[in-house]
Design the sequence.
């Protein structure tokens, strides 16, 4: 008698390359029967020919009602971690603690929960409940409480600038805003994978961001985790993070590591593909396997060379009329890949966020100098035109 394939309920919002080219092919390689639950079925139908079920994926009750009898429930969406975790818990399946998913998504809750380990000034954007203006440690970072992609994140230096930026953001969106003290230092990421019993550090990127007042990630270079990383692991443990993939952003300044934000999913913007290639592991399969209840593999992956992800940013509003197609080449000893995030013909409006990315150049080579030179040659050989 044939053994039925394990079923995976994959919960998704918008179409992303990580799901389309990472997790869905990995599920196929694992022989899983996939049901894709989404509130955007038409969009996913263009890239996935399997079973797609339309439902309100922001509501865990709807996920439970439409999931069938799954062996695993998984999402790679920032917005959907908590409802997916609650649905997995309903079925008694391995999954993330819904409280940890809530704490990591809600920046006010995260700061409150970490206050004993790392006190950071944080308040609602109206500064209500404070003793007076002298208690506010400008400069501050103003941001949506549950925002993503550096959208509507600003550095503000005084009360007048805060009020102006606050009004500017609220003209576009109504969700809650928070302010936090500005944390100086070198920005890093920490990439981890846990199975509920153990958490493994996969690696770290050193990140270059745009000049203030915006915080757009422009370049990520693979680097050994800094010596202060243990403090970040302590804070992730306090938040309850320890299952599945997690992407944490933090700064190191004068020997002190401090969390900026925690994204309880794998790193995005094509750096997940770069990390998988650099480590030489089936990263997406490993992430899905822990959601199926399997332990982490015994082998600890080691990077094979140096790696960089460098984005091509739009520099003006207009229509993208010329840009390279998806490309994979070898330049000397460097493996280089380019994947567009905007297609020719797309209208582009500058947002000073990660949504300004036209594409990402990924490169892996024997040393940093060769990688940087290959990226520079690729940029020089191609044109991105916004008319």
Sequence:
């Amino acid at each position: 008698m044939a053994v039925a394939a394990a079923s995976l309920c994959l919960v998704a919002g918008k179409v992303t390359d990580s799901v389309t080219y990472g997790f869905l092919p990995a599920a196929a390689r694992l022989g899983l029967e996939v049901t894709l639950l989404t509130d955007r079925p038409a969009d996913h139908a263009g890239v996935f020919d399997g079973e797609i079920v339309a439902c309100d994926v922001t509501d865990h009750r709807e996920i439970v009602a439409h999931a069938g009898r799954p062996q695993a429930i998984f999402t790679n969406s920032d917005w959907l971690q908590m409802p997916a975790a609650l649905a997995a818990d309903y079925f008694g399946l391995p999954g993330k603690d819904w409280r940890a998913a809530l704490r990591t998504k809600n920046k006010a809750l995260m700061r409150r929960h970490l206050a004993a380990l790392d006190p950071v000034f944080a308040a609602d954007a109206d500064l209500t409940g404070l003793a007076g203006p002298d208690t506010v440690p400008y400069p501050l970072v103003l941001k949506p409480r549950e925002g993503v992609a550096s959208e509507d994140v600003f550095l503000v230096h005084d009360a007048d600038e805060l009020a102006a930026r606050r009004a500017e953001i609220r003209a576009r969106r109504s969700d809650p805003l928070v302010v936090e003290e500005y944390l100086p230092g070198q920005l890093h990421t920490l990439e981890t994978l846990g199975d509920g019993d153990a958490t493994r550090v996969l690696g770290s990127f050193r990140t270059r961001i745009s000049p203030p007042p915006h915080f757009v990630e422009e370049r990520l270079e693979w680097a050994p985790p800094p010596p202060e990383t243990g403090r970040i692991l302590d804070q992730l443990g306090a938040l309850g993070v320890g299952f599945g993939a997690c992407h944490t952003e933090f700064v190191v300044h004068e020997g002190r590591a401090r969390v900026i934000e925690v994204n309880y999913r794998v790193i995005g913007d094509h750096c997940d593909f770069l990390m998988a290639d650099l480590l030489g592991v089936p990263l997406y399969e490993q992430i899905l396997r822990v959601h199926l209840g399997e332990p982490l593999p015994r082998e600890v992956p080691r990077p094979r060379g140096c790696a960089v992800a460098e984005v091509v940013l739009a520099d003006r509003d207009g229509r993208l009329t010329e840009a390279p197609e998806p490309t994979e080449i070898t330049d000397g000893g460097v493996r280089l890949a380019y994947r567009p995030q905007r297609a020719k013909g797309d209208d582009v409006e500058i947002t000073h966020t990660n949504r300004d990315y036209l594409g990402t150049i990924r490169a892996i080579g024997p040393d940093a100098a060769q990688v940087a030179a290959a990226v520079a040659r690729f940029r020089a050989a191609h044109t991105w035109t916004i008319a």
